[in-house]
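S1.2 Input.
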Amino acid sequence: MHSQMQGGQWPLPERKGVVLMMAIADALTLMIAFASLIVAVIAVSKDKK
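S1.3 Output.
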């Protein structure tokens, strides 16, 4: 797969789509990380009360 990308055999729109998918995946990962962090903070604050 990497050799195909380096060889420039992929058409431009397809490559843009792959980059977009990777960006969406990164955004989802960040959102999940933040969500778990917030849940942990809420759990700790509830325990303190």
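S1.4 Remarks. Residues 41 and 47 are 10 Å apart (CA to CA).
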